UniProtKB/TrEMBL annotation:
It comes from Tahibacter amnicola. GO terms for molecular function: kinase activity. Pfam families: Cytidylate_kin. It is found in: Cytoplasm. Keywords: ATP-binding, Cytoplasm, Kinase, Nucleotide-binding, Transferase. CDD domains: CMPK. The gene is cmk. Residues 7-221 form the Cytidylate kinase domain. The keyword Kinase applies. This is Cytidylate kinase.
Length: 223
């Protein structure tokens, strides 16, 4: 029997990261934050001073960058290591998000990261969040969610997240950056941001986090 997968795709700030983590905790399943993988490659490329528009260099970077996730014993957030350095905080900035989105349009970069993402599928189950989890990476997933929220609400959530981390941002610039990144993610020819035909759409605008978690869990354990 294949290991069950729940995919949660959606635009930035839709809350997929938070929802995926909480649902994985409740189910006792593994978690794949695929955005962190694209961010890690983009970050490694920037740090190395590589030309982000050089598809071959970016593909080599995707193939060779060592990306590891470590669950803290104290139950805090997952740490992400890029070439053995804890880069969790650096990866979260909107600058790295924009770099990730720029290199994510390169088909050979995406292809280089497929096996890595598949390797997260281990018993008893996997919750995978990203843009193409239900459409490209795990098309056979039994449960697929496409999570959205209004652009205003997504910008406000990201604003709060970044503010809480002590990062200097303004709501207006964040809204513009998020809209630009979403437009690029949705318009790219390879693995664009779009719901799988069999995905359940959830608009989380104005919904408390626990209500979204319950809704997602109800799709796995239908009442
Ligand atoms: O989800 P997150 O904001 O961390 O993702 C950063 C960027 O990585 C996205 O804007 C998108 O361009 C890219 N990405 C992707 N496919 C995924 C996850 C993220 O192209 N499955």
């Amino acid at each position: 029997k294949p290991v069950p997968v729940l995919t949660i795709d959606g635009p930035s700030g839709s809350g997929k990261g938070t929802i995926a983590r909480l649902v994985a905790e409740r189910l006792g399943w593994h978690l794949l934050d695929s955005g962190a993988i694209y961010r890690a490659v983009g970050y490694a490329a920037s740090m190395a001073g590589l030309d982000l528009s050089d598809a071959d260099a970016m593909t080599r970077c995707a193939e060779t960058t060592k990306i590891t996730f470590r669950d803290p014993k104290d139950g805090g957030e997952t740490r992400v290591y890029v070439n053995s350095h804890d880069s969790t905080d650096e990866l979260r900035t909107e600058t790295v998000g924009a770099v990730a989105s720029a290199i994510a349009v390169i088909p050979s970069v995406r292809a280089a990261l497929v096996d890595k993402q598949h390797s997260f599928r281990r018993a008893p189950g996997l919750v995978a969040d990203g843009r193409d989890m239900g459409t490209v990476i795990f098309p056979d997933a039994a449960t697929k969610v496409f999570l959205t929220a209004s652009a205003d609400e997504r910008a406000r959530r990201r604003y709060k997240q970044l503010k809480d981390k002590g990062l200097a941002v303004t709501l207006m610039s964040l809204l513009r950056e998020i809209e630009a990144r979403d437009a690029r993610d949705a318009a790219r020819p390879v693995a664009p941001l779009k719901p799988a035909p069999d995905a359940v759409l959830i608009d989380s605008t104005g919904m408390p986090v626990n209500a979204v978690v319950d809704k997602v869990l109800s799709l796995i354990h239908p009442a």
